[in-house]
């Protein structure tokens, strides 16, 4: 029997989008045709597409017209829906632009996407709707420089250490934490004044202490479906040292991460449900897509660090391969606000994801250098019949059109994910798979190690 065809537009070509594309192509129910709106020739995603364009419309900002995207979508006959991977196009209104030409997306429209694109919006929303989980905070805008300085240097001086956050999307570079990025309240105030001068809007919030976890929920405005809990490793170097990155690797365990409690998960899920409802009440548009909460287990309960309005990268590389249920249904039911009709199952496995990144990443990455791949080794490590093995995702790499060589794009290059019943075995699998790639690359050896787990356990002792 032939399967019904689903035509899906996929915007972007990083590791997260490779994971999305793979999950779609695994569908047992549908013959999936992926139409890629890309900005680089990522060969492994291209392999999965029916058609694609490489576009120059890549800096998605306030004034983006999205004409190229609309034209691309309109030329696909009977397109079923679109999936927008990254935060920039979502924040700039790609979903609204596609709606104008009659295409629905798995991703939020611009207003609900403020959950990620405005940190102040989210803090105020939780406060207004009496949702637990906020630290102490205050939003500031241009014109409030004097109050800002007084708040940082006097009002909170004896009360708490603080974090300065640019209100908008900054690619992970807009957060400054006392003790990490600055020491005294005065130094923090200076940073805050600089940010306010540049961006006009910021949040000052209490510094929270404890281990962090990511909880990604598929949301349709009415129902949320939580994915397994995952922990990211944002620092560039071993031992959680060095600058913050998009995420050097991520881990998950069967059932849950060992350094959080079931109560933490229940509180994070409850918070996410309330926030989803509050978004609609506040702005009159429902949230459809991924509500990706960064949470912290603190001595005073589960606290919200931030929400993102998309799949995490690398979190998607852990979560999507664990999805047993049909990914096409999951995304399409969310679009049609029918998630309450779905039962979603996951493989109850441990995962260890590690990103290979270019030398110099994140500040001064080498680019356009060649990476070689030992495909035989990767074939040996493929998932076995018990669903133990390795999945590989290509991210910021591209195929040189003249030589066919794989080249570095400059951001995180290739993600490998070890999947196993046993966490230690999952780590070993990831470490083996890493060896399949040669080039000017590095990765974090310690992700998945006992030492790092113990360090996170110690934070809650
Ligand atoms: P964000 O971009 O909001 O996820 O922040 C980046 C990182 O900064 C988080 O993963 C945390 O490690 C840290 N961070 C953000 N907000 C806080 C906070 N209120 N207390 C402590 N650390 C924080
Ligand atoms: N894992 C970090 C992010 O996707 O923002």
Q: Average pLDDT across residues?
A: 96
Query: Which term fits the overall shape?
Result: globular
Work out the helicity level.
25-40%
**Gross CATH architecture of the largest domain:** 2-Layer Sandwich
Total of domains: 3
Strand content: 25-35%
> Which ions and ligands are bound to the chains?
adenosine monophosphate, glycine
So what's the CATH class of the largest domain? Alpha Beta
Report the major sheet.
6 strands, antiparallel
Q: Structural class from helices and strands? A: alpha+beta
Low-confidence sequence ranges: none
Number of helices: 15
How many β-strands, per DSSP? 25
Feature tags:
6-stranded antiparallel β-sheet, binds glycine, 3 domains, alpha+beta, binds adenosine monophosphate, 461 residues, 5-stranded parallel β-sheet, 25 strands, Rossmann fold, Dna Ligase, domain 1, globular, 15 helices, D-amino Acid Aminotransferase, Chain A, domain 1, single chain
Can you walk me through this structure?
This protein is α+β, with helices and mostly antiparallel strands. It has three domains: 5-107, Rossmann fold, CATH 3.40.50; 136-206, Dna Ligase, domain 1 (2-Layer Sandwich); 212-458, 2-Layer Sandwich (D-amino Acid Aminotransferase, Chain A, domain 1), CATH 3.30.470.20. The protein has 15 helices and 25 strands. Strand 7 (162-166) and strand 8 (175-177) form a beta hairpin. The longest helix is centred in the middle third of the chain and has 22 residues, at 262-283. The N and C termini lie far apart (57 Å). The model has no long low-confidence stretch (mean pLDDT 96). Glycine (GLY) is lined by residues 232, 246-247, 308, 312-315.
